[in-house]
Amino acid sequence: MPILVMKFGGTSVADLDRIANAAEKVKREVERGYDVIVIVSAMSGKTNELVNWVETTSPLYDAREYDAVVASGENVTAGLMSLRLQEMGVSARSWQGWQVPINTTSAHGAARFMSIPRANIDAKFAEGFRVAVVAGFQGLSAEGRITTLGRGGSDTTAVAFAAAFEAERCDIYTDVDGIYTTDPRISPKARKLDKIAFEEMLELASLGAKVLQTRSVELAMRYNVRLRVLSSFEETDENSGTLVCGEDEIMESKVVSGVAYSRDEAKITLFTIEDRPGIASAIFGPLAEAGINVDMIVQNISEKDYDDAHTGAVTDMTFSCPTNQVARARKAMEDAMAAGLIKYDDLIIDTEVAKISVVGIGMRSHAGVAAKMFEALAAENVNIKVIATSEIKISVLVDRKYLELAVQALHDAFELDKA
Amino acid sequence: MPILVMKFGGTSVADLDRIANAAEKVKREVERGYDVIVIVSAMSGKTNELVNWVETTSPLYDAREYDAVVASGENVTAGLMSLRLQEMGVSARSWQGWQVPINTTSAHGAARFMSIPRANIDAKFAEGFRVAVVAGFQGLSAEGRITTLGRGGSDTTAVAFAAAFEAERCDIYTDVDGIYTTDPRISPKARKLDKIAFEEMLELASLGAKVLQTRSVELAMRYNVRLRVLSSFEETDENSGTLVCGEDEIMESKVVSGVAYSRDEAKITLFTIEDRPGIASAIFGPLAEAGINVDMIVQNISEKDYDDAHTGAVTDMTFSCPTNQVARARKAMEDAMAAGLIKYDDLIIDTEVAKISVVGIGMRSHAGVAAKMFEALAAENVNIKVIATSEIKISVLVDRKYLELAVQALHDAFELDKA
């Protein structure tokens, strides 16, 4: 029988009623003829309770014990979901990570998949079981310890199972009903997309659309796993939600598919640095070591004149990072200066910026997208502070106060409200 | 290094403070030079929460899923205890049942130990780990599923580990500070015992003293594991609590060690049954099939005359069972009558009785204990309804209203308040 993977996040299994509701959706897919692998998160709030106990007990905790404690939340949901399905007449059993086994690296708290052997679960399907309920977010290290996968680990588990079992599709049930052209809270004209390409979703995910974790989309793209995002809390059918898939499945795509934003960005500029080979690595090496997520990077020709202190060519370097990493970024730069690795006249931090991006695979074959974007922003008097582009997206930093205005203007300019 | 097993029940690990308190006790034993195996229960209330979820989700639950869900409570405590010990500078790691592995039968919810291989934990001790924190109450079936051991399973786990690892002792930390000559709530003269023999403890445990589960005492006796019962909530040292041990360790024992009672007993009498070979099995076979825990059994010569309906000798049969099994017992008897297996004139149930027992290994070599017991009860005008004896105990059923009076009278008569 064809295999379907269905994933339910924490709010979708928050209590027994919601578990029952999710089980109904699973049953429907079984009736449609699928063998189903269900990936479950912990009931919402449970993981926080467990994390809090661990951190209170041991602030600098042993990550192996952290994982052993925290993974129990998903195990509970898996058992309860299996029981609920059985109660509805569906033959199901629960699987903890070590029982599958979900083999991972030993990087506790941020483990990565090594292999998911199919044999055990396939044997149960062959026996007539129709559903395998798998605890998400966890695995087994070569040392026989329980691992967890880190943020978004349940989505990633779902995609990994879909790849390993060659599933027809991986349905991610969540608290929104799909992927929108932009955040509906910012633009009431936002429209739900029927389909979106992996590459676009990846840009949207990493740019701040919170629905899917970047890592799960990457994995889906690599193994060509068709992902569907849909709501746990509404009636759903084969056409619900948004399908994230390869470009080949998308007949006619618009040039721009969506407008993403990231509110908490900071812009850091180093003025008057030497313009020499190796200067970029002298700056970004220390930032990487300090764990700063540098996003946009722009190097300008300095407008300043040479002075006595600078005997060579000079330039300015601007980069962006999340606002909560600004203090660490400043320290990394000051330390690098003190260590003689870099030299700058001034370090200016602007924490009042936001990033707006337009994303679309159609950009590859269409010129003029950037011009249209800048024009739309100019028409609203929104000043652009930094520009960065990739093959399928254009991102700008603007003053944060213009965020809503800019998103709405771009949504209108690219007519994203029209199908 | 010598190995010590320490077990902490649910109230002893009810919250993070109590886990920390228990960890202090573990650390002290490590400092005394022991390698320690700690067996933990779920934080109190957690198991009930999980059981409630399971029963609400599926009233006739799949016991394998029940076990998978419920066992998670102990896993959480094991991780937290290990973290707490690490935080105190003690090298510890947690062990879930499948990691040891604790091999059990597949009787989910009431599994029995098959084997506890030492290799994995011994290897960690050899590496320098000083504490293995093991989740109690659980194991692994040959099918790779999580099992639970049923009532008192954590005590049993502790004893089984003590046997497998040839531990010097198995300390059971609980909410009382030892085994008493009787229930202190009933007799203020109750005295804590320093030592008690396995056989005595077994009689006391099965007779209603709630401190240790029968099964764990049986296991301790079989493998000669020295058990110590002591309080989690008091300062304890090498001499705290009560040691449950072989008779050879008890120098001079009193004839009677304690007075036990069981409040919720019922007495059932079948009048005028045939007095023929096989009649007992015709009665107690159906009761066993119905799951009735028959305790005392007394067969009397009937005082009734022969009548037309009975052509052979007749007798009466009396037995006792817990009050909450009376309805089932009556039905089993009525069904057996309807099926023609047995025949009786009347079935009389008395649910207002209690069982009082005096227990002591010294009885084996001392006559007159029964006489002294009956005399003491007679002096208080307590009528004895049924008597049953074993090598080291004498039990009587009395009207429940006399329970406290009878316990106190016997405690005085055998001078149990004196060491």
TrEMBL record, chains A, B:
Where substrate binds, per the record, is at: T47, E74
Q: Name the catalysed reactions.
A: L-aspartate + ATP = 4-phospho-L-aspartate + ADP
- The record lists ATP as bound by K7, F8, G9, G10, T174, D175, Y180, R185, K210, V211
Annotated keywords: Amino-acid biosynthesis, ATP-binding, Kinase, Lysine biosynthesis, Nucleotide-binding, Transferase
Q: State the source organism's domain of life.
A: Bacteria
Q: Please list the GO biological process terms of this entry.
A: homoserine biosynthetic process; lysine biosynthetic process via diaminopimelate; threonine biosynthetic process
Per the UniProt record, one Pfam family is: ACT
Any Gene Ontology CC annotation: cytosol
Q: What is its EC number?
A: 2.7.2.4
Outline the extent of the ACT domain. Answer: 268-356, 358-419
Q: What class of enzyme is it?
A: transferase
Pathway connected to this protein: Amino-acid biosynthesis; L-lysine biosynthesis via DAP pathway; (S)-tetrahydrodipicolinate from L-aspartate: step 1/4; Amino-acid biosynthesis; L-threonine biosynthesis; L-threonine from L-aspartate: step 1/5; Amino-acid biosynthesis; L-methionine biosynthesis via de novo pathway; L-homoserine from L-aspartate: step 1/3
GO terms of molecular function:
aspartate kinase activity; ATP binding
Question: Which family does the record claim for this protein?
Answer: Belongs to the aspartokinase family.
Spell out the protein name for this chain.
Answer: Aspartokinase
Organism name: Thioclava pacifica DSM 10166
Q: What is the lineage of its organism?
A: Bacteria, Pseudomonadati, Pseudomonadota, Alphaproteobacteria, Rhodobacterales
